[in-house]
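# nightly structure sweep
# worker-07 picked up a monomer target from the shared queue
# config: single-sequence mode, recycle default, output format = structure tokens
# input follows
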Amino acid sequence: MEDAAPTRSHTLMEYFAKPTKPDLIIHVVIWAWILIVNVAAHAMHLEAWPMYFIPLFFFLLDADVKKIVMIFASSAIGIILAFCLRSGMMLLAPAFGEMPAFIMVIAAVLGILLIGGTYAPGFLNNIAFAYLIAASIMITDLDAGKLFNHLAVLFIGGGIMLGGCILLATFAMKKLGVEEGAKDNADKDDPEPEKVSVR
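# output follows
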């Protein structure tokens, strides 16, 4: 009887880290920039929620600049699908009833995301699904102008927020003498918890 494959035991401390001074400074710079953009958006009375998730998904995807287009495109698709979801329910509910209309529309939207995602995973993915959920909660006005406003905030506001994060982080790294990729190489030497891929 073969021995079972060794399993890696996890300790609570594996989920914590002691940041280096440069790493901490870079994160403080990013935090300050995001705070400034949030305050500015609030002062301008913008419905700024579409731009908030852009840096989040960027850093979740290992800050890979090659995935920026995918992040923005997927986010826009999620917002558009949420608009289609609400619009479809408004159109079909008078003829079929609220629940049948909801079932038909949600089946179509989820089918586009889940089944279509097997053909176009670069656009129909978890990011689009997350934006679909957020937009379905946040969008209450089905005016087409509102849709364009949300998309404008996504691309312009999200671009400003993400662009600032990247530029300031790059500037801070140069000033601190941190070489690009140095942190990634250091992380490889330290044990980290196993990750589960969502797609």
